[in-house]
Write a structure and sequence with these properties.
The complex is a heterodimer of chains A (198) and B (125). Chain A is of the alpha+beta class and 198 residues long. Chain A has 7 helices and 4 strands; from the N terminus they run H-H-E-H-E-H-H-E-H-E-H. In chain B, helix 1 runs antiparallel to helix 2 and helix 3 packs antiparallel against helix 5. The chains are: A alpha+beta (198), B mainly alpha (125). At the A-B interface, helix 6 of A face helix 1, helix 2 and helix 4 of B.
């Protein structure tokens, strides 16, 4: 596929392979993430689709070991100490400026997901592991990071090198993935789709 | 080995030695404290079974902490292994997870019974 906008060749099958081989990594090795890689991941987040191009989220990068440990301490959903954490915050001042209501406007939360997905995909393309976390104490994370009142942490992306060489600390067993035909309805809800070509 | 009243480790006296106690450093204890209070906050909004998961996770962390601080307790080491292996079924096999909860409680209760005559003076909770 060649897109007119980028002029680059993107192989759709390779892109699908990239998307379908990403897995959540919950145990990270100690190796640092290179600055160039980190910036590519952040840049990928910048290009995430965003409602009305409002851009009400900010990305706080945390690499200091002590800070990473403290955030993990306040986050029961984080099981390891990754090289990098990216804390996706809603900037409540930006929300107000855009005329949105932070707790009532679904796109505020949807845009957290698009940001997260873009960054996870780019990290996977770079050979890095990622894990999104929402199971954290918001008050606790705000306190340990000294966040200003207008920065509301929504999700934390953990990035690092998978500790694949070591035995997994927590051998999560994933449920079997559903087939695409089990997820898709065709024309009417409840109506099965035709079989995909091939 | 029988122990005499009034001797260290005897009835009414706190037991000492690596098979009875472990000094947990403050920073490790704080980690568990943070896990518990953070869990208390997020359990209000998470699915109900996450609460059981957080508690099992905390129990596993406590066991690991005590063992890591020198407690020589093969039963506890085995329990920690069980907890770490079974808690993750919350994500993959929820009926198995639910079945494990009373099993873990029974395991701990039997251990309490087994060691009931082996403790120091009563301390009010």
């Amino acid at each position: 596929m060649t897109t007119a906008d980028t002029g680059r060749d993107v192989d759709p099958a390779s892109l699908l392979a990239l998307l379908s081989t990403r897995r959540v990594v919950r145990d990270f090795g100690p190796e640092p993430v290179e600055d160039a890689q980190l910036w590519m991941i952040l840049e990928a987040g910048r290009w995430a689709t965003c409602a009305s191009n409002n851009r009400v989220h900010r990305l706080l990068v945390v690499q200091d070991r002590q800070q990473v440990r403290l955030v993990a301490d306040m986050s029961p959903g984080i099981f390891s100490h990754p090289a990098v954490m990216v804390v996706i915050c809603t900037d409540l001042q930006a929300v107000a400026a855009a005329g949105l209501r932070a707790d009532a406007e679904p796109t505020v939360f949807i845009d957290v997901g698009t940001l997260m997905m873009n960054m996870m995909t780019e990290a996977h393309a770079l050979g890095l592991g990622t894990c999104p976390a929402t199971s954290f104490s918001r008050a606790g994370v705000e306190a340990v990071l000294g966040l200003p009142a207008h920065a509301r942490p929504e999700a934390i992306l953990q990035i690092g090198h998978p500790a694949a060489a070591r035995p997994p600390v927590r051998p999560w067993r994933s449920r079997p993935s559903r087939l695409v035909t089990e997820l898709v309805h065709w024309e009417r809800y409840g109506q099965a789709p035709p079989l995909p070509p091939g | 080995m029988s122990q005499q009243q009034g001797q260290p480790g005897g009835p009414g006296e706190p037991r000492s030695g690596p098979e009875h106690s472990a000094a947990v450093p403050r920073d490790r204890a704080y980690e568990l404290l943070a896990h518990l209070v953070a869990s208390a906050e997020i359990c209000v909004t998470e699915p109900h079974y996450y609460g059981s998961f957080r508690l099992l996770d905390a129990a596993a962390k406590l066991a690991a902490m005590m063992l890591g601080c020198g407690l020589d307790d093969p039963w506890l080491a085995s329990l920690q292994e069980d907890l770490d292996r079974n808690k993750v079924t919350m994500m993959s096999d929820r009926p198995a997870f639910y079945a494990y909860l009373p099993q873990a409680a029974r395991q701990v209760a039997l251990r309490l019974v087994e060691t009931a005559g082996d403790h120091g003076p009563d301390v009010a909770p």
